[in-house]
């Protein structure tokens, strides 16, 4: 299936705050990722807070544990969207999320709410959810408030027009950091698995510290663009230097 062009995706994002693009990952890629994350989830505890979800398992430091999302993280369509909204950016909080049976709905929130910047403002955060199971309203598909990316200080009330982002495995749900959303309740007897990639403007501090989370010997073997997304880069004019030099020098001769 041919993917939509960047202009079409940006039009939907500007209008609704989100867009679902189907068939981005092949069935083989989905199966391989689900199998590998399944092994990681077997030794991953459930969440510690209401926000994490007490019946939800989250795989943090995902680029230290699997190579199967190197490609999705740098997919050309994703990078084109990021280039449009953020210009210079890094991965902020890439996380595997398995919502277990019986989990309740997560509180609605915008992902840029962690930064003390008054709304409305230019986009600071862009997210991509990669479903590895079919997402349905019953199994906890991401809940979205369309158009809420244009809100100021408003918050969604009980009558907010919340929808469930239902989509097949292998899709990409791209949504703006200003959009109100949250994980859904899982009323089925099976968990639902997805991987969310949070990206933030490079001048902001990332949620996860990848320089510590991903061992340097792993980073040395990654593609240069992914190295940059993990923090081995400079945000112009010179944010992020190390002892006066580009941080990629820390990776040794191969990176230089």
TrEMBL record:
<dbReference type="GO" id="GO:0051213">
    <property type="term" value="F:dioxygenase activity"/>
</dbReference>
<protein>
    <submittedName>
        <fullName>Phytanoyl-CoA dioxygenase family protein</fullName>
    </submittedName>
</protein>
<keyword id="KW-0223">Dioxygenase</keyword>
<keyword id="KW-0560">Oxidoreductase</keyword>
<dbReference type="InterPro" id="IPR008775">
    <property type="entry name" value="Phytyl_CoA_dOase-like"/>
</dbReference>
<dbReference type="Pfam" id="PF05721">
    <property type="entry name" value="PhyH"/>
</dbReference>
């Amino acid at each position: 299936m041919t993917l939509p062009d960047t202009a079409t995706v940006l039009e939907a994002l500007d209008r609704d705050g989100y867009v679902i693009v189907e068939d981005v990952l092949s069935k083989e890629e989905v199966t391989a990722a689900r199998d590998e994350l399944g092994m990681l989830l077997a030794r991953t505890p459930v969440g510690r807070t209401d926000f994490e979800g007490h019946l939800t398992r989250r795989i943090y430091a995902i680029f230290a544990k699997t190579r199967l999302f190197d490609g999705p993280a740098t997919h050309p369509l994703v990078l084109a969207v990021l280039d449009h909204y953020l210009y210079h950016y890094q991965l902020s909080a890439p996380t595997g999320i398995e919502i277990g049976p019986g989990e309740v709905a997560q509180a609605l929130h915008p992902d840029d709410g962690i930064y003390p910047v008054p709304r409305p403002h230019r986009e600071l955060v862009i997210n991509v959810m990669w479903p590895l199971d079919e997402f349905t309203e019953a199994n906890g598909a991401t809940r979205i408030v369309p158009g809420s990316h244009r809100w100021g200080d408003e918050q969604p009330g009980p009558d907010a027009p919340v929808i469930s982002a239902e989509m097949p495995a292998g899709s990409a749900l791209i949504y703006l950091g200003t959009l109100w959303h949250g994980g859904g309740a899982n009323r089925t007897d099976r968990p639902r698995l997805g991987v969310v990639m949070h990206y933030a403007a490079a001048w902001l501090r990332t949620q996860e510290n990848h320089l510590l989370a991903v061992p340097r010997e792993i980073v040395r073997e990654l593609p240069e663009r992914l190295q940059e997304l993990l923090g081995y880069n400079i945000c112009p004019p010179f944010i992020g230097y190390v002892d006066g030099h580009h941080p990629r020098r820390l990776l040794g001769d191969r990176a230089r």
